[in-house]
Specification:
Elements lengths: L1 H5 L4 H11 L7 E4 L9 H16 L3 E6 L9 H13 L7 E3 L4 H13 L3 E4 L3 H7 L17 H12 L9 E4 L14 E5 L13 E3 L1 H11 L4 E5 L6 H11 L5 E5 L11 H9 L14 H7 L3 H11 L10 H15 L1 E3 L1 E2 L2 E6 L8 E6 L9 E6 L2 E5 L21 E4 L4 E9 L5 E8 L17 E2 L2 E2 L4 E2 L1 E5 L24 E4 L3 E2 L11 E4 L3 E5 L9 E7 L3 H5 L3
Parallel strand pairs: 1-2, 2-3, 8-9, 10-25, 12-18, 16-19, 22-27
Antiparallel strand pairs: 4-5, 5-6, 6-7, 11-24, 12-15, 13-14, 15-20, 16-17, 17-18, 21-24, 22-23, 25-26, 26-27
Helix pairs in contact: 3-12, 8-9, 12-13
Bound molecules: adenosine-5'-triphosphate and magnesium ion.
């Protein structure tokens, strides 16, 4: 507890603590404001943990607000997925709001600005305006429509709303400063005409507020005290503040933090949509996708994401985070939580020739050495078992270098007996088809009286009780570390080996009733989760992550 108290606050927490101490706010209100134009990704998880986490830490509130002001790209499916993702991450929002609910109020705000002489209807096309807009080092010129009277503007604005004009024919602009060094202050657009139905308001509106006009005003309507957004919005802040001042509404305060960039990972809804639409993945919830739905299906846990979010912290400078940190958090969490079972990805049959044909013995296996309360399970052992092909070498190097099986070598079959290899058969392709061995009855695990010592212990699966399965071996979706620095199409950097389907694997009998969502560790192999595609006849496992980081090895780390 002491150490937690002394944990240093990040710059946002520091600011909030000061605001509460000084009495500026009695309580804080934050919000998570996704646009429902795609599925949430791991970058959003950072923002979710930040906004909801601050509300929890300082006894405040956090709203979920859908920033739904671009009707062409938004869908109800996305709203539903976002809500379920936030819940899965472990958070519950105080208010559920939609910027579209504020359309009438935003319309009134716009009229207020017009009446104050702070907004005008502009007939210039986008291209025409770009020509007079100037550059960051050169002041712009004023639109010839800038001096319209408030009455005229009001009339035109109402006509815009009433559908009298075509898309792009007119816009409503804030009247600020055409020579501001900040381009966002050069008479930014507040409303544009879009004859498009909206997923919530249908055909009620044909004018829609821009991000800049909807976002800050929605914050104010909800009395958001601390409006946190990513650094690219820093240049929008003067406009955010100008609008609040001119409208004389609740002074929400915008503060920016660095967005999450992750190595080997794309965190942009637009690009993720491209992967979905181009069928490079099976959907938004493809287990290789960095979406919350994807990583959940893959087997990442809310706790591991929380741990990851905590470990990366909150900073004011953009950088790139190593995806190995996220993977590490997942391994640590699953190591504590999952039961160990035997799953053999590349099985070869081993026959124990001195074991009676029909005899079976019940052995006791430990479910999770990290968690005693997970208990033990029974495992049936008999004359024929599968071991992994990789655990046998026809011509092994010296026993010092090879602890596993080979002709005349001894190993222990975990929880069972020490066996000695006596021979093997090959098939017509020259592949080992059957291995033969003899067991030593004196060496049963827990009751070993032989005094024998062997270094190698192998996993195995009883042939009689083996469960067939389809295992989807996932790897990183991209093979390039920093996808922010590439100049060509990001899709050129897809990892061609990001999915391998294994249908020859066999699993121990205890997995025959595995249910969707169950998570286990296949001993010495990795962490796996039962996939939603599982049917009565086909048990499908996703590999969540290997036991060790194979990429670090590839890179010589
Ligand atoms: P994308 O570029 O993927 O579409 P976005 O910023 O457009 O992301 P929004 O739905 O507008 O997505 O974002 C909702 C909230 O999540 C915003 O406050 C945004 O700043 C935050 N957010 C989005 N991406 C990241 C990220 N990579 N790291 C941290 N926060 C993010
Ligand atoms: Mg966006």
């Amino acid at each position: 507890m002491e150490s937690e108290k002394r944990e240093s606050l990040n710059f946002i927490e520091q600011m909030i603590e000061n605001d509460l101490k000084s009495g500026k706010h009695q309580a804080i209100q934050t919000r998570f404001p996704p646009e429902p134009n795609g599925y949430l990704h791991i970058g959003h998880a950072k923002s979710i943990h930040l906004n909801f986490g601050l509300a929890q830490k300082f006894n405040g509130k956090c709203n979920l607000r859908f920033d739904d002001t671009n009707p062409e790209k938004e869908e109800t499916e996305y709203v539903e997925s976002i809500k379920s993702n936030v819940k899965w991450l472990g958070f519950d929002w105080d208010g559920e709001y939609y910027a579209s609910d504020y359309f009438p109020q935003l319309y009134d705000f716009a009229k207020k600005l017009i009446n104050k002489g702070k907004a005008y209807v502009d007939d210039l096309s986008q291209e025409e305006f770009n020509e007079i807009k100037g550059t960051p080092t050169q002041p712009g010129k004023e639109s010839p429509y800038r001096s319209r009277t408030a009455e005229e503007n009001l009339k035109l604005f109402e006509e815009m709303r009433d559908g009298k004009y075509q898309n792009g024919q007119k816009v409503l602009r804030a009247k600020i400063d055409m020579s501001s060094p900040n381009m966002h202050m050069r008479d930014p657009i507040l409303y544009r005409i879009k004859h498009v139905d909206h997923h919530r308001t249908g055909s009620d509106w044909c004018i829609y507020p821009t991000y800049d006009f909807a976002h800050g005003q929605s914050d104010s309507i909800e009395n958001v005290t601390h409006s946190l957004c990513t650094l690219e919005f820093e240049v929008h802040r003067p406009l955010y503040e100008w609008l609040i001042k001119e409208l004389e509404i609740f002074p929400s305060k915008q503060t920016e933090f660095a967005r999450l960039n992750l190595s080997y990972t794309i965190v942009s809804k637009r690009k993720l949509l491209e992967l979905v639409e181009g069928k490079f993945v099976s959907g938004w919830d493809d287990p290789r996708m960095p979406t919350i739905s994807g990583i959940r299906r893959r087997g990442f846990t809310p706790e591991s994401i929380k741990k990851f979010a905590k470990s990366i912290g909150v900073a004011r400078r953009d950088g790139i985070t190593d995806v190995a940190l996220l993977e590490h958090a997942v391994r640590e969490d699953l190591n504590k939580k999952t039961n160990r079972v035997f799953g053999i990805l590349d099985p070869v049959k081993l026959v124990i020739t001195n074991w009676p044909e029909y005899k079976e013995e019940t052995l006791t296996a430990i479910n999770n050495p990290e968690d005693e309360s997970a208990g033990t399970r029974d495992m049936m052992f008999g004359r024929e078992v599968y071991i992994d092909r990789g655990d046998f070498l026809e011509n092994p190097p010296s026993p010092k270098k090879w602890y596993r099986l080979g002709p005349d070598r001894e190993v222990r079959l975990k929880y069972a007996y020490i066996i000695k290899c006596t021979g093997f058969d090959k098939d017509e392709n020259g592949e080992i088809s059957t291995i033969y061995a003899e067991y030593d009855p004196e060496t049963r695990s827990g009751q070993d009286t032989s005094g024998k010592k062997v270094k190698g212990t192998l996993g195995w699966v009883s042939v009689k009780h083996a469960v067939n399965t389809e295992i989807r071996l996932y790897d990183r979706l991209f093979q390039t570390e920093n996808l922010n620095e590439i100049e060509d199409d990001f899709k050129n950097h897809l990892n061609p080996d990001s999915l391998e389907i294994n249908t020859k694997a066999v699993l121990e009998g205890s997995l025959k009733d595995a249910q969707v969502g169950d998570q286990v560790q296949f001993e010495r192999v990795g962490y796996f989760r039962v996939d939603e595609d599982t049917t009565e006849d086909n048990l499908v496992f996703n590999r969540t992550i290997t036991l060790r980081d194979n990429w670090a090895k590839k890179q010589g780390k």
